[in-house]
Amino acid sequence: MVERQGSTEDLWTWDFEDSRTVYCSVLRDCINRPEISRYFGHRGVSPESLERIALGDAFVRDALGRTQTTYGAYRRAVAEAARAGATLRAARASVVVDGSMRLCAAVLALLPVWVLVDLLVAGGDLPDFPVVLIPVTAALIFALCIRLRPAAERSARSLIDWARYRTRFRQYERQRSARKQLWAQPLEDAVLMPNLHAVIRHMLGPDRDSLLQVENHEGLRDVHDAKYVVASNAERLLRQKMDQLDGGTIAVCGPRGTGKSTLLRSCSTRPRTSSDLAVFVQAPADYTPQDFLLTLFGEVCERYLKFHGQPTDAGVFVDAGRARRLGRKAWRALKWLIAFALAVVLLAAAVGRGLQWLYEHTVRPNVVDHLGHWRDVAWAEVVTFWTDHPWWAGIVLSACGARLMPSMPRRRRGTRMPSSVQQCQRYLHRLRTVQNSTTAVNVGITGPQGTGLGKSRTTSMSSVPLTFPELVGDFRKLLAEIARDHRTRFRGARVVIAIDELDRVGSTAQARRFLGEIKAVFGIENVYYLISVAEDLGAAFARRGLPHRDVTDSSLDELLYVPPRTLTESKELLGARAPSLTAPFVQLLHALSGGVPRDLIRYARRLIEVHHWTTRSERQDLVPAMICDELGDTLEGFRTLMAAHQWTAESGRLLADLQVLVQVLRSPADRDSPATRDTISDLATGRGVLRAAPPEPEATPYGFSGELLTLWQEASVCAYFSLTLLEIFGAPDFEHLVARAAGEGRDGEPNRLAEARQELAVSPHSARVVLDDIRRAWGLPVRPL
Questions:
Q1: Among 194-198, 435-439, 663-667, which stretch is predicted with the lowest mean pLDDT?
Q2: Spatial contact of 702 and 686, defined as CB atoms under 8 Å apart
Q3: Could you write out the three-class secondary structure of 559-574?
Q4: How many whole angstroms separate alpha carbon 11 and alpha carbon 8?
Q5: What percentage of the chain reaches a pLDDT higher than 70?
Q6: At CA 467, angle to CA 463 and CA 470, rounded to 5?
Q7: Angle of helix 706-729 relative to helix 751-759, nearest 10 degrees?
Q8: What pLDDT does residue 126 have?
Q9: Phi and psi at residue 515, in whole multiples of 5°?
């Protein structure tokens, strides 16, 4: 575009080619940014199409009009630089250099020559007056030539004008470059990027969220990184319960994978204040209570010593592996020192002679001798003053001595370590070592010819390990003192001990017995025990006060149930770990995982894996691939469990049909076919079972009984759940289905699908009832069993 003079319509257009170049450069940078380039190849979005739209008259006029202030300043800077460049070219063309100017230049050129000869050849022995004489001579020649020759004056004026215009041109160029940056930055960030995003949204259509674009999913790889942990409502409730107690035992229960370990770790690594003392331990299944308490005892001592900056390995010998590592480090340091010494020797030999010559000819006569002379003079004055004025000299020396006298160190109040630190060091040393003491006494008489008569007695003593009651008593005593000292030294500070994996200590009876034996260390003031327990133990505590009572009633103070995440919490979790996932995919992952964070992250990784190996990005392509692959794995697991039962030749046909269905679900070419969906529907409604299983007098109408019937019902309802997800998230009119279900109440909410997934772990019958209600709300046909 070229601006028409006096036109208001084209006020914000480019009138210099440089403006168009800058605009195109910024446009290409925007197009190449990852948030734009990730849409290339989808629904007609390409660099060429975006550049063609962005170079249109309306797009350019809008972009330049929205940056009118900075663009106007840039245009003025370009115009001023252009005028300065034209003036500079005219001044350069009019430059005339006559003989007098060349003579002055030749005289001035003698100055650097003289300096180089003095430094490199004469060693600084040449006289210094030519350094002043040469510039003075050149100035006199210049003045005489200007005064006596008019041509020399014109030549000098042309050179001065050229230098002045050149300086001005450089100033305008710097100003133009600065104004260019001031225009390009808001043009890119505030105008072009939002406009390009708007163009892309228009090109992708209203269902643009159905396009999967994975930018950054580092949070899905590093599951345990604390920076990706998102605080849940359960964490806030746990901290509230801790605020309402002055020490106690809080049990955390919930389904597997809901984040109980993450919750305990967050309360340990992110305490309420920096003064809180937090200890995190795990209770593996093969621990006995005494071994666990020994481990907990040592962890508390180590953490407390580290909190106070004390060593935790005092009095304990260094193991052989650590000694070898120290030896290797010492050997590497020795080799480095040898190489460094050789390098210093070689460098000293290389430059030593030159430095010696420089010292003897320059430094010693000009610096060292002068300093020695003034030193002798000063010493003579001091001696004279000391001899003539002994009293004044004594006063001065006394004042200096008093000033230099070091003061006695004062013992600061409050810096003494508490006695609990010393006790932790003693207990830690005793827990890690076995102490032995041996005493020998020899008494004898030596006879002639080497004969003798004597008596020897040896006494040996060794430390006895602490028994479990002693261990409990010492640990309670030490922990109570730690909690009391900690609260005294740090106002409001807590001692938090998180015990994880207690829900995996064998069976429920073993967990109850384990809890009953270690509960002796509970109930200490200002000490908070956070324990993860199984759901049945939590249910037993919830029934306290009823006729049923057990160890949980007397061991626990509070219970916190950690439910699966809601859809909002799942969005927050995935937003921190994979922020590029759009709403439809978040809802799908939430439904598949049932809101369980561990499964939510696992399914998110699975989705990205399917995206990579199928090279597909559309929701309608990814959903069948992911759901069918997941259903195939689930049916394979059911087939393995069912194969452990007794089968006949006639009923074995069912296992073969399941194996064929698993292979079809894993086949990229067949899993999304109508025939495959019909097969999944038959499995979901139980059809085909009567054909495969022989009738038995005592059997149910399904042809199975007992555990085999339960497995088949669970497999059937899993297929029903997968079919529902396929028909919802794999539908071409997904947005229309969402809008329709939004007016159907609770059963039409996307979070209800996750609740159905959770119900699969409770009962296949209740899960089928929930799925029927969901299908009615979403306008899908109900398929009865």
A1: 435-439
A2: yes
A3: EEECCCCCHHHHHHHH
A4: 5
A5: 79
A6: 100
A7: 170
A8: 66
A9: -65, -35
Question: Measuring CA to CA, which residue among 549, 591, 555, 597 is closest to residue 576?
Answer: 597
> What's the one-letter identity of residue 60?
V
Cα–Cα distance for residue pair 735/724, rounded to 1 Å:
16
Has residue 303 got a pLDDT over 80? Answer: yes
Label residue 436 by pLDDT band (50, 70, 90).
low
Summarize pLDDT for 102-133 with one digit per residue, the tens.
777 887 787 777 777 766 666 666 666 677 77
The sign of the dihedral angle between the CA atoms of 750, 755, 761, 766 is negative
CB 138 within 8 A of CB 109: no
CB neighbour burial string for 484-520, b if at least 16 within 10 angstroms, e if fewer: bbbbeeeeebbbbbbbbbbbebeeeeebbebbebbbb
Q: What are phi and psi of 780, to 5 degrees?
A: -105, 150
494 contacts 528 by C-beta, under 8 angstroms? yes
For 443, the enclosing helix (H) or strand (E) is strand 436-446
DSSP 368: I
Instruction: Using DSSP, state whether 456 is helix, strand or coil.
Output: strand
Dump pLDDT digits (tens) for 645-654. Answer: 777 666 677 7
Considering the entire predicted model, what is its pTM? 0.69
pLDDT at 442: 57
Instruction: Name the H helices within 44-98.
Output: 47-54, 57-66, 68-93
527 within 8 A of 495, measured Cβ to Cβ: yes
pLDDT for 6 equals 36
Residue type for position 55: L
